[in-house]
Amino acid sequence: MARLAQFDQAGTHRLIPAKYGAESVLRSLPLPPDVLADLSELDAATNERKIAENGGNSAIGPGELLLGVPEAHIVNAAFTYPGTFGGRFHGAQRGVWYAGFEIETYIAEVAFHKRRFLADGRIQGWHRFDYIDFLADFSGEFHTLEAAELETCLQPDPVPQCYSASQALANKLLFEGSNGIVFPSVRRHSGTCIACFRPALVFHPRRGQKYRLSIEAGTDSVRSEVLST
Predict the structure, then answer these.
(1) Hey, where are the domains in the chain?
(2) How far apart, in Å, are the Cα atoms of 121 and each of 114, 167, 171?
(3) pLDDT of residue 44
(4) 108: helix, coil or strand?
């Protein structure tokens, strides 16, 4: 069974698509205040993060989500947009905050999924994707995987079927009160990742550099460049 260990890691990396890190489009529209208010109300009715922040999500509520701290909306979005099939250590009801201890690790993780996206769309050639690196610090007790769990929970493919065992373990640990899991990166040898189950433990979330990833469809080629600081 996964065991607890103390982890203190500052400056972990999570790449968020640049379009999601920008200011709300609504705020930039030259519209009367009453029209903006109506649009904001409509947005809140269809925005999964805002629905959860207002108590409309049974899997995670406002008592767990962040409020009134810098980048709270970025952290909360990770927990309220779990994706259709979830991820390695979360299901389709509730997300987690994934991060890499090294920027190269998170680049490798993102590049893998982008290559799958290009392959599924039968898209060829080189394509560029812009991201903002969100850093966060962690300090506390997190679970690590035993040898048998490393075998069953870190299968590289097929995605999402290979997530079955890891999602089951994560769900069990979550409801037993776990803070999350620290595990070896599947996509970068020697890299380390964290899956944090608790928004409050994503400490001091902050913006780092902006990266552009250039990925060639059908190959393992990926180039990264820093666009800004």
Answers:
(1) 3-23+66-228
(2) 11, 26, 31
(3) 43
(4) helix
| pLDDT at position 190 | 94
- Do the bridges between strand 192-196 and strand 203-216 make them parallel or antiparallel, or are there none, so unpaired? unpaired
Beta-bridge partner residues of 9: 138
DSSP state of 219: S
Q: How many secondary structure helices (H) and strands (E) does the chain include?
A: 8, 7
The single residue listed with the structure tokens 């001091």 is 204
Amino acid 1: pLDDT: 77
Give the chain's largest Cα–Cα span.
Answer: 60
Tokens 């190269």 sit on residue: 104
Residue ranges of the chain with pLDDT lower than 70?
22-46, 228-229
pTM for the model stands at 0.89
Phi-psi map region of 200: left, alpha, beta (phi>0 left; psi -120 to 50 alpha) = alpha
User: In Å, how far are 20, 21, 54 from 24, measured between CA atoms?
Assistant: 9, 9, 19
Residue type for 214, please?
Answer: S
Identity of residue 22:
A
DSSP per-residue codes, 51-105: HHHTT--SSS-TTTS--SSTTHHHHHHHHH---SS-BTTB-SS---EEEESSHHH
Cis upstream peptide for 199 (omega within 30°): no
Distance CA 184, CA 173 (A): 18
Tokens of 178: 């776990």
